[in-house]
Amino acid sequence: MRVLVVEDEIKMAELLARGLREEGHAVDVAGRGEDALWMVRATPYDIVILDIMLPGLDGLETCRQMRASEVWTPVLILTARDAVSDRVAGLDTGADDYLVKPFSFSELVARLRALTRRAPQERPVTLQVGDLRLDPAAHRAWCGDVELDLSAREFALLELLMRRPGQTLSRAQLLEGAWDMAFEVRSNVVDVYIRYLREKVDRPFGRDSIQTVRHVGYRLREDG
Ligand code: CA
Fold first, then answer.
1. What's 62's domain CATH number?
2. Under DSSP, is residue 99 helix (H, G, I), strand (E, B) or coil?
3. Residue 192 CB neighbour total at 10 angstroms
4. Which of 94, 105, 113, 191 is at a distance of 20 to 30 A from 24, taking alpha carbons?
5. Rounded to two decimals, what is the model's pTM?
6. How far is the CA of 78 from the centre of ligand 1 (A)?
7. For residue 83, how far is its CA from the centre of ligand 1 (angstroms)?
């Protein structure tokens, strides 16, 4: 993604730019709202990270003028104050989301991902293995054209298997991935849920896609 960081505090701006570059993004930095305005008009950024506290034109006014000149790039506002009025004002000026300082970098990255996913041209990644299809964001799965009616746990198991088709996943890996809390190792809960899953994914379609790997765990056939 191409990101514009608008922040006058040099240390903060550098920290953000470096972190985002390490994530593989192209980053430009502006220290003033006035600079940010001509930059967003000249360059099609995927996202703008905009600090509220700026000298001259502040973040809110910058955002307002951006929208007034019909630049619709998603904007994530940064605010030092945990004030509701600030956040509301930010969203009223046409910002898409806000983050209160101090924030963790991983939270920032997660917000950016969510914002760009929301953009109309972006589609959530759908998993496909053979004729099995799963949309993690929408929480829906299909076999061919038939939508599968899965419980949350069954869905999580299927997603794990579909993320690594052809690979054997141990019971411990499946437990860890699909259950929030650690169960006792001798628990056969994974086997029970694999059985439920087969009843929905395989049996009605006369298939055998979820294979048992003796003494180890389970794997999904690469061709579904
Ligand atoms: Ca600032």
1. 3.40.50.2300
2. strand
3. 11
4. 94
5. 0.53
6. 9
7. 16
